[in-house]
Amino acid sequence: MAVPGLDHIVVDVAGDMDRGEAAYRALGFTFTERTTHSLGSSNHLSMFDTDYLELLNPGNGARPDLAGFTDGLNGLVFAMEDAAAVHADQAARGVPVNPVQNFSRDAKLPNGMAGTARFNTVRLPPRSVFDGRVYFCEHLTPELVWCPELKIHASGALAISRVALACGNPDTVAATFDKMFGDGAVARAADADAPHILQAGKVAVELWPRAALAKTLGPAMPDTTGRGDMMALFGVRVKSLAETADYLRGAGISTLPGRDGSIIVPPETALNVAVEFTD
Q1: Do the Cβ atoms of 213 and 193 come closer than 8 Å?
Q2: Residue 117, beta-bridge partner list
Q3: Are 241 and 139 within one domain?
Q4: Is residue 1 situated within a structural domain?
Q5: Does residue 48 share a domain with residue 122?
Q6: Shared domain check, 259 and 132
Q7: Are 119 and 140 within 8 A, CB to CB?
Q8: Of 41, 86, 138, 187, which has the fewest beta carbons less than 10 angstroms from its beta carbon?
């Protein structure tokens, strides 16, 4: 199958949703009302044009697949439209996938719509690609997830632009993605200190050598203690970087300079995640 676009990324709040919500609202993200999945976990969503950020609370042991994760990025989720077909494709490629999972949650949107939002997922076992979770998500009721009012953010956020992983061996992670999506799905870097790239729609999933990413990010590098290959940074494209910088400054949020003029919120402010804003 061709590499699908990114559906969303997940930040685990390690059991403290109030703290996670407060941290990310301070960064200028608008969120949906808190709700509980039929699986037992709870979440908030911050919606962009075609993708979104999810804050996830494991829910007191209700989700064994979330066990053992600390604060930080732990979910890379691809979009899909036919769960049965994706499951069959991945299984035929020899990719370990769990059975199609259907679940739901209540939804109440600012435009007055309300109902039960329903989803299908095809999940790889946790930590089978990196120290986190990779899966596919099919939205059966997209009208209960996206609405214009939820896509207005004080930070000016428009879309996810990149996700950077810190890898002990990027070739190993790249080989798994090639198995999922076909040989050559991941563009290999010629420079040993540059990232391999999996292009998921408009989002670059970057597989960095851990030391090289740490050198590039400097003080913006998340704490990797006790972690294997891990998601370290996500980038967000904004309407105006100058306006975003003004907003963060006014909110008392310290930032660091990033590549190509971007600004980065350091991990101690964002649950051990480097959050990059760029235009």
Answers
A1: no
A2: 105
A3: no
A4: no
A5: yes
A6: no
A7: yes
A8: 187
Residues 115 and 39 in one domain: yes
Provide the whole-model pTM: 0.96
d(CA 245, CA 239): 11
CATH number of the CATH domain containing 218 = 3.10.180.10
Q: What is the pLDDT of residues 217-257, one digit of tens each?
A: 999 999 999 999 999 999 999 999 999 999 999 999 999 99
Among 134, 151, 168, identify where a domain stops: 151
Indicate the residue type of 136.
F
Q: Among residues 123, 151, 179, which one ends one of the domains?
A: 151
Burial of 273 (0-12, 13-18, 19+ CB in 10 A): buried
pLDDT digits (tens, 9 = 90+) for 5-57: 999 999 999 889 999 999 999 999 999 999 999 999 999 999 999 999 999 99
Separation of first and last alpha carbons in the chain: 31
What single letter denotes the amino acid at residue 130? F
3-state secondary structure the chain: CCCCCEEEEEEECCCCHHHHHHHHHHCCCCCCCCEEECCCCEEEEEECCCCEEEEEECCCCCCHHHCCCCCEEEEEEEECCCHHHHHHHHHHCCCCCCCCEEEEEEEECCCCCEEEEEEEEEECCCCCCCCCEEEEEEECCHHHCCCHHHHCCCCCEEEEEEEEEEECCHHHHHHHHHHHHCCCCEECCCCCCCCEEEEECCEEEEEEEHHHHHHHHHHHCCCCCCCCCEEEEEEEEECCHHHHHHHHHHCCCCCEECHHHCEEECHHHCCCCEEEEEC
